[in-house]
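pasting for the record
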Amino acid sequence: MPELPEVETIRRALAYGGREGSPILGRQVLKTHLLWERTLAEPSPAEFQARLAGQRIQDVGRRGKFLLLHLSQGTLLIHLRMSGDLLVEPQAAPPAAHHRLMLDLEGELRLAFNDPRKFGRVWLVADPASVLSDLGPEPLDGDFTAQGLYGRLQAHRRQLKPLLLDQSFIAGLGNIYTDEALHLAKLHPLTISNALDYIQAEHLWRSIRQVLQEGIDRQGASIDWVYRGGDFQNYFRVYQRTGDPCPQCGAPIQRLVIGQRGTHICPQCQPLEQG
């Protein structure tokens, strides 16, 4: 699943050009093609097509793992889920096999939502808060502080990894960047959140921000056929490196299953403290 760095990379490409596509900022939506109706969460297909026609894309934003296309009236929210991607391509190009939604734009361009596994969803809403209100803080924002994270950790008694994956706790983290951040912070993913002291929470705060920024700088991680173009996968510390030596101490990386999610740790750098 694309996580915050991958979604941010897509956002920047849509806004300013990149990933072999032209920018879409300022372009008018000429026509919509809804190829799989269940892609659309809200409103009805007929209302969706009627409301989008003639709208202009005024800004491209991101909140957690959501992309936000701010229009002349309302906002188009897109969640890529497991296998979604957004492509800017010529209108004349034949639609790919897994295109679920296409927007014809002025300039003979097309914005295509490609989603082989059909889990992605799109909303057209007047107020993004109607969809996004339950999301936690943005981990790269200036108001996300070490003190704030410490307070949030103390307010829960949960294992660290499932808590960090909870989008209502922090927005944008997924399996990759959680494993990487916990390794950098030298914390075991089964550690109970309110057992951390302030110094440990501060290390975790710095680690989360560092690995997310590294991911953005390297245009995300390309580890399967879903997301293209990033190279952060070449710099993983632990994720999907089972049996490889830890870059810090040389111990073999281990794979655990926590909350039905594959989890990668260094048993020497990330010991589970008893009690």
